[in-house]
Amino acid sequence: MADITIIGGGLAGSEAAFQAAEAGASVDLFEMRPVRKTEAHETDNFAELVCSNSFRSDDAEYNAVGLLHEEMRRCNSLILRCADANQVPAGGALAVDRDGFASAVTAAIEAHPNITIHRSEVTELPAPGTNAIIATGPLTSGALADAIKAVAGNDELAFFDAIAPIIHKESINFDIAWFQSRYDKPGPGGTGKDYINLPFSEEEYNTFLDAIIAGEKTEFKEWEKNTPYFEGCLPVEVMAERGRDTLRFGPMKPVGLTDPRTGRRPYAVLQLRQDNALGTLYNMVGFQTKLKYGAQAEVFRLIPGLEKAQFARLGGIHRNTFINSPKILDQTLSVKARPSLRFAGQITGVEGYLESAAIGLLTGRFAAAEARGAIISPPPRTTALGALHYHITEGHVDGGKGSFQPMNVNFGLFPEMETPRIDDEGNRIKGKEKGRARKKAMSRRALVDLAGWVAA
Asked: Which of 408, 438, 392 is nearest to 65 (CA)?
């Protein structure tokens, strides 16, 4: 029997398995695909991305998720290593060729001498006392979900998450569309022309908006009707219904973009981001949808430049599950009522690819420490890893009663610090620059404190 049993081969499970194996522990990794498929996955690879192909901003100085990227790189993250190796242009974001990325993660897991892979469905929790990690994510199979609920109590929570469509580049009308990043900002490996932009006049925007609102949408089952959406990944139809300018000031904002046909900023813009290394597929940025398949093709072909769009994948919506972690988990992400059983990934109440993998990284290290009879402390709260850890273990003073919700990493989760008054060049920091200076100082503090934690 291996030192650690891990159930689930997604981002969190793969990262947890790799971290534990690198620490010298033997790992049994269980993944039910291809024995049992899910509603969202298309391949048998580990760490398959089912929604966006973007890990969001890679700016480690002024953005909390970019800081999380850098912290994970410094912790020998498998997910970041494979993401960096399969990067596609995306301005200041870290986006990947989703097939190349998942294949790289799968190859690394298969090649690791300390990891044994089991392609079979697990329908019950490991026996009490087993050093185990549950990283089954939002698409946990029914029998195992019931077993988890029995351990987690009646505080199991859920929300809806959505997927954006992917388009074949060859079907885009480049008499209308053009390449440009906002403010021509190039990202790593980019040129400042990393996105395809589709412009709207005011009339075109209003026609499109009316079509979205009127389009036929997926109906929820009776037991799903009280399930909320995750605010960080709302379906486009929900945003449209909140007001006629919500999209135009959200995913369709035109700032920093100039239509080369007119030399002016459009009324609204839909951006497409490269989805594979070949540059043949592009996804609709921010356009998660619950429109039915037939309606999607009809509505989205109203977008200027997509009149003859061919879709490699249409959008969809699925139900995600997360536990009341502040009430259930201890400092090592172990279930308080059942030591040695840990949870990792989105099920713990973090939202986002990298946030899920980050909790997998921590859980793998905690489990490996337990396997060798050691104890490691959580990362400092001043780090992105520590801020996420604190959010899901004790971030709510009421123990999570009714208020605990999934969260992306953000500087609001970090301990406060005084804003610097002088910049690196000795100049006084004024006005709007104070916010950026504070974020930069918090990022610097995080990396210094992370180095101490890693060394310890």
From this structure: 408
**Cα separation of 190 and 90, whole Å?**
7
- Tens of pLDDT along 301-330? 999 999 999 887 788 776 667 788 888 899
Say which CATH number the domain at 77 has: 3.50.50.60
Domain span holding position 249: 163-319
Question: Could you tell me if 227 and 319 are in contact, meaning their C-beta atoms sit under 8 angstroms apart?
Answer: yes
Name 4's bridge partners: 27
C-beta separation of 157 from 323 below 8 A = yes
Same domain flag for 273 and 398: no
Tell me the CA distances in angstroms from 20 to 16, 190, 385, one per residue in order. 6, 34, 17
Peptide bond into 34 cis (omega under 30): yes
Number of domains in the chain: 2
Structure tokens of 162? 């959505």
Spans in the chain with pLDDT lower than 50: 222-225, 397-402
- Give percent helix, percent strand, percent coil of the chain, each to the nearest 5: 35, 20, 45
- Residue 358, pLDDT score: 98
Token couple for 251: 């995913």
- The pTM (predicted TM-score) of the whole model is 0.73
Q: What are the backbone angles phi and psi of residue 36, rounded to the nearest 5°?
A: -130, 125
Residue type, 323: I
Residue 443 lies in a domain: no
- Secondary structure class of 250 (helix, strand, coil): coil
228 with 323: CB under 8 angstroms?
Answer: no
